[in-house]
Amino acid sequence: MNYGNKVNGFRSSESANGSRDVWSCKDSDSSSADHLVVMVHGILGSSADWKFGAERFVKELPDKVFVHCSEKNMFKLTLDGVDVMGERLADEVLEVIQRKSNLRKISFVAHSVGGLVARYAIGRLYRAPTRETTKDSSTNTCKGDLKGTIGGLEAMNFITVATPHLGSRGNKQVPFLFGVPAFEKAANCVIHLIFRRTGRHLFLNDDDEGKPPLLKRMLEDYGDLYFMSALRTFTRRVLYSNVCYDHIVGWRTSCIRLDNELPKWEENFIGKYPHIVYEEHCKACDADQAESISAEDDGSDKLEGELVRGLSRVSWEKIDVSFHRSRQKFAAHSIIQVKDQVVHIEGADIIQHMIDHFLT
To answer: Contact, 121 vs 93, CB < 8 A?
Structure first.
């Protein structure tokens, strides 16, 4: 058995393939930690990208969580497509569950494209409700638990950080293109040459055997992939989004809002978390409400409106973040994750916010 390296109250181990597990060094804590937290990196990333976040989670919740930083899609493998990466991640999660027999709950924390990969993976991992029959002595009737699971575990928190849920093809969805239509049109034509299959998925120009774009398919349960049923199974769904200076993923696509829904945030700083400028708890929309979301013409791409409408059928906690006063503000896409605990440490309050609101 690999007991890992002991550092500052927790142990960590790294596999030959690069996966990283982090847990409490106290036997009493590690034996009671039954909540698997799967951390997923973004494009061209690695398991090391979540090192700070993983260690902070275990330090704050030592007897609750066992953290696994995914390694099946590192570096160039992130160019293989959201679906291929999602299948790999699903297999990886099942391997961890089989290896850790005491696990009872599961959560995901995913950065950038990793959020889309995690959404695909949970669609594969979803297990339909099974009636566990128990007899109610007061009524002499049977009651059943009809809640689905993710890989057989209770689904708790699904958290994405600067994830392009609406794709990257809309106006200003990739900020470094400056919102110039000619640049955005050109990017749509050549993105597959740079980011291959993943680029096609992000710009919604994939056409697999005449099927709709993958991100549109992920709005429903599609074939044997239960994308929306899986998303609904989680007790919480949370979006952390950069409102500015993220030149990779735009605010609108990461917070699942239309342009006319973006809030004013300039002076809305929250004390304990200085970089959080706005919070909103959005209830799930029914069919009529969802239709009204796209009925208002705000100039958005039609498909973008469909994605907003589809994803609004579940509730979301939306946390808007700004590093506009930071010296490293142009690295906002990495700061929000604390990808490097020296260079990007200003994002530590975002990780702390995750932990403070985390359902265990």
So the answer is: yes
Torsional sign, CA 223, 224, 225, 230: positive
Q: 229: how many CB neighbours lie within 10 A of its CB? A: 17
What is the DSSP-derived secondary structure letter of residue 283?
A: P
Reported as type and span, the H/E element at residue 143 is: strand 141-143
Q: Report yes or no on whether pTM surpasses 0.85.
A: yes
Helix, coil or strand: residue 36: strand
Q: Are 37 and 107 in contact (CB under 8 A)?
A: yes
> In whole angstroms, what is the distance from residue 192 CA to residue 186 CA?
11
Residues 336-346: pLDDT tens digits?
999 999 999 99
Residue with tokens 């700083």: 269
Cβ atoms within 10 Å of 212's Cβ, excluding its own? 17
Taking alpha carbons only, the member of 304, 309, 334 closest to residue 242 is: 334
Residue with tokens 């007061």: 138
